[in-house]
What does this fold into?
Amino acid sequence: MPALTPKAAAALIHTYRDTLAAVERAGASNEGATRAAFGALLEAWAKPAGLTLLAEQTVEGTRNRPIRLDGQLLNELRLTHGIWEAKDSGDDLEREITRKIAAGYPLKNTLFENTRRAVLYQDGRVAFAADLTDAAAVTRLLDSFIAYSPAQISEFRRALAQFRSDIPDLARALTELIDAAQRDNAKFRAALAGFLAHCRAALNPQTSPAEVADMLKQHILTERIFRAIFANPDFVRRNAVAAELEQMVDALTSQAFSRDAFYKKLDYFYRPLEDAARTIEDYAEKQALLNTLYEQFFQAYSTRAADTHGIVYTPPAIVRWMVQSVQQALAAEFGLALASPGVHIIDPCVGTGTFVMELLARLPGHALPAKYAAELHANEVLLLPYYIAAQNIEHAYFARTGSYAPFPGICFADTLDLAEPRQNDQYVMFTPPNSERVEAQKAAPIRVIIGNPPYNVGQESENDNNKNRKHKTVDARIAATYAKASRASNKNALSDTYVKFFRWATDRLGDRDGIVCFVSNNSFLEQIAFDGMRRHLLDDFTHIYTFDLGGNVRKNPKLSGSKHNAFGIQVGVAITLLIRNRQGAAPARRLEYTRVDEFWTRQQKLEYLEQKADYTQIDWQPLTPDARGTWITAGLEADFDSFLPLGSKEGKAGIDGETIFKTYGRGVATSRDDWAYDFHADELERKVRLLIETYNAEVDRWARRGSEVTAVDDFVLNDDKRIKWSRDLKLDLQRGHHAVFDQSKIRRSLYRPFCRQYLFFDRILNEEVYVMPSIFPTPESEQENEVICLTDLASEKPFMTLMTNCIADLHLVGAGSGTQCFPFYTYAEDGTGRRENITDWALARCQAHYGDPAISKRDLF
It folds into this structure.
């Protein structure tokens, strides 16, 4: 494990002593004042080893009770590497250690200190004691603390790394077994067909045989891991969905001497993982290992599922803050608690069960059985996390009560599908027991909705063949509300999955007062496409609290997702608490907002949430939305609406409104810029001919498919080196439209401001051409319109001043040394329509402005 150099270690100890001395000179000696100094020392010492120090963490102790830690060191698997406990300078350290051990502090690798002495426990006994005034002793102490690694954890880490690298081979091995069984085993073929029918009826009508095979692989993986790690072979019998899948596994292995004999080919992959896992006794470590395995599996093998469903682990600090905030809101607004009878709670996208486990931990023992049996609900649409959630939740209940009971509130279902009306009386959600759970959940008067919905606006490329699934009822509700109330032209962002969950959650409360608390993408806070959503949220709820955790790497490239984002991802994150309380007189609507510093690290954000235990401890900023549905108005000019628009839909239609231009458009949307644009006409021709050749071949192949019913997404060639698909191009393929190369379609285009390129201007290979054919119908018209005439604005002196300033302020990168692209403007000094060429004027102005007489017309154009 990487260690500090002696020079760096000495510098850190020197800084620690100086900081501690300064604190003590100020008269502070209590734990709260002094522990920051040792915390900074420990954090810096742990960093080279890839360990993260989190302060003020709550974990389950050895007495099955929650304990509060001063500091917890986590490794790259998010497992606890060590625990740090600070005491006052004047405390009797030995007596305090005895008290902590009695309270349930684990002693695998725990460091106790009081700024004078430190004692390090490892594997249940004292491993090292140090005088903290002795630099050499401090070095040995911290090195021992950081270097600790139980043999079983090290072995598991090695096995896990090997497992991830082996996942592709493991998948191929499982695929070979399944393919062979499909060929040779009639019993398995029948079971597979029945299971596919279940999936299409209950989960997704578009489920493919390949996706069913993936589910079977996940089941086989999970079943073996559960047996090895959790010693719970009964899980597959007790769980309704697992029992159904077991029937398919029985059919799969029916022609082998035994299941173990059938699986023998896979032992090479599983044995190291299983052997290492059997040596781990602590359930919290087992749970963390299983969560890590879950993420590793999807990231290495099922990346499409990870992208579509947002496979990401919710940090415990966020989970605790949200659950505690809901608890406080229930008490403040309704005089209720999480444990109150009749308060039904649902996590609609439960993942591995983190939120439900936190709820179970907070419920008082007397209320736990009734709440667990009937008033806690959860859904999951992916098989592997569904299994893990059920296992984790059931174990959490067992740990609290001492008795096992299956969790009846978890359903294997797509939550957004549950908004759809029932088709007939035979409608079954996968299995009869699962259907019964779904029907019980649909009938429940949900009062609280909490969780981490997936955020994914859609596939980045049509070639990915990984679209978000359509949900007819929820999509229609978004169209009738969020989209209808929006003034945006492009509303694609409203198809993001997390937006669907906000819409679903609002509708799921129905006419009841209640609470929704989601951690999600923060794009809805400011983007124009969400103006209608923001309006409706204010109409649908009486109180809105939004905690903006920032971290949008795409918006601010100076940020790092792994360092500054609370989830370690690229998009911004926000926690939103929505409260609907219409009791009594007409309530005053409240919109509150807060954000943390943009450059706070992930650790700082999570520690802040630990310090501010719930929403009542936050210093909120009241927001007053403007007429455009903008919530965050700081820095915006209030007179924007008074400006004369460049163009408008009303002006375009000749209905109403004064605008500068009557006709306007979005230009050309190719959906394949890399293929349709180029700086060189001959290179563009080469690319387009290859694209057309590939596309036309696919058109012909589609026409020859005969009577076979095939989804176009599964049919087409997805090769980024030969073709770039889009929605309309696939529609043209299905209509039998061939593309044709024509030299006259290679046109000059302003690809970006000041950047000319060649464009292949074609109605098939360009996704949308909008009104451009009416503006530039022929290549000759481009030459005629090379000059953009602003005659009708010539008499407007403010406009002329603006034009002059714009040209004077141009920043020509590399002026004088390379070709630059610059639009060619003309204007008339009066309203007669007379044109005056300003090229020479612009050239002289730019030469003078940049002090470079070498700037030429070539540089301008």
